Structure formats: structure tokens, C-alpha cells
Amino acid sequence: MRFGLFSTFDNPHGDFAQAYAEQISLVRLAEGLGFDEAWVVEHHFNAESPIPSCLMVLAFLAARTSRIRLGSAATLLPFHNPALIAEEVATLDILSEGRFNFGVAKGGPFPMQNKHFGVDLADSRDKTIEALALIQRLLAEDEVSFDGAYFKTDRLRLTPKPLQRPVPTFIATSTPDMVRRAAALGYGFMAGPPFPLKIVARNVAAYRDAAPQGDPKLVLMRFFHLARTRAQARKEAAELLAPFIERMKSTTARMQPEWTEWFDVERVIDDSLIGTTEEVGDGLRAIETELAPHSVVLKPLSPLASKRSADLEIFSDVIGPLFRTAETI
């Protein structure tokens, strides 16, 4: 099982430059500690997570790191021209010397994105599917003619081409339908920090039903917070998660009401890696047994850079080595 860092570029101090500097330092620390992956989100019009251009940030991180794999989590395809994204993916794969993981999504229940990018919510899923199909052809084929409902090309030759053939691709989703599509195409899938483990388990089963010989290559993001006692860890986590939970409850009630029941603070904590080192280790063992993820990607909860760093260091020293195998070293 591999381990990674989930980078949302949190901005608790209202200082964009500080948020970027702290997160870049944390990625570099994670690499030094032996973490395998760092994944960067794409968020728009969000002062608390001001990271609208994940591919640009990943290109910068490619120059500041040498070993850790770098992933988009995720590129929101409905809001981009797929030919441009294909060019940027190929360029980033070259700059990172073949260390790029391409995660994609249609965008969450955040209507401001669709409104200001002029994308009808009803079209987001189909645009994502079509854009990804075109991107993959451009990355793999010498010349591409494409006649879709949203995008068209005529004998287009993409330059440059990526080093990796193919570039590892992951779909971020909570729905069995998109998981089955990922299975049919041989992609992995990603599950975000707040999504219930029972939903993730359902989707792993859907993937394996669709592709019995396939590998879900599950990238599981989880909230992460350590303390000396269980009670202290849960109390601190509840306080840190409360604003996020309330914001998501409000948004999902309008946009995706089926998600509303998921956003309960205690349920989110139960499905996260929150507690003492022993409890986090036990949680990882249960995840490994039940889901067999390709990687578990940690989202530190603390707004303090020092605490985020300390928790990653403890994880690297105490917890991570319990799960290292010959394949992950």
C-alpha cells in the first residue's frame, strides 16, 4: 500500500502567498519522508482553497521534487478545452520525468463554477466523458479526427507527446456508473476524504463486477489528524471539520441531496484516520483488508503548518513502516 499527501492549499490565514509556500514546503517534506504521491486539487472561486490551476502548480512542484509522483485530484474537464489539457498533460509528464498521475472529474456540487464557466450542470458528466476520450486519443495517437457533441478536431497532431504511454489515469467519482466506465477503460478511480467508506466499498465492488480481471487502483483520500488520546483527536477534528461539514450540507442540499446524509461530523470522523497512532494504524489495517487500495492519501486537518508537518513526520516514523512491503519500498 502506497501513501500520499492530499494538497488543497488551505488558506486559514487569508494570505494566498503563505498558503502556497506552506503547501509546497509540505509536499517537499512528504517527499523527504518517503511518501509516494502528492495530489493537488483544482478549486475555483474559493478563497479558503485558492488553487484554480492544479496543472500549473504541479509543473512547479515537478521542478522542486525529484522522486514523489504528482497527481491532479482532479482536473475538472468540463471547464477546459481538452486539446489544451492534452498538451499540458504531455508537457507536465515530460517536466516531471514521467511522474504524473492524471486525475479527472466533472466538478462537485458547486454551481458558481458552472455558472461562470458557462457549463450547464446537466452537461457536466457527458462533457467529462467526451473530453477524456479525446484527450486519451490525442496523447496516444499520431493524428486525431474527432466529431463529438461538444468537441471536434480534424487531423490534429499533438505535440509534445508524454513520456508515459499511457499516462496513469484516475476518475474521481462517487457513482457506480462512472466507476464502471473507469473499469471498462482500465482507469483507476479516486474517492475524496468526506465520502463514506461504505460507498467506496460499493464502488470497488462495482468496478470488480465490471472488470473481474481489472485493478481498481483505488486512490483513497482520508482526513488525517493525530493526538495523544482518542478523545482529544476527535474533539480537535470535530472543531476543524465543522465549517467544512456545514458548507457541504448547505451545498449538497441544493445540488446533490443524496449526499446530505453523508455530512455528519461523527460519521466523517469515523471514516477518517483520526486518533492516536495506534488507532490510525488500526484504521489503515481495516482499510487495507476491506478495500485493498492502491494508495491512501492523507489530508492533514490542522491549519497550522507546524502541526501538519509534525503529523506527517509521526506517520512516516511510526505508522507507515508497518505497511511497507518490498513492492512499495
UniProtKB/TrEMBL annotation:
The keyword Disulfide bond does not apply. Transmembrane segments: none annotated. SUPFAM superfamilies: Bacterial luciferase-like. One of its GO terms (molecular function) is oxidoreductase activity, acting on paired donors, with incorporation or reduction of molecular oxygen. Residues 1-288 form the Luciferase-like domain. CDD domains: Flavin_utilizing_monoxygenases. GO terms for cellular component: cytosol. It comes from the Bacteria. The keyword Oxidoreductase applies. It comes from Methylocella silvestris. It holds the Pfam family Bac_luciferase. Keywords: Monooxygenase, Oxidoreductase. This is LLM class flavin-dependent oxidoreductase.
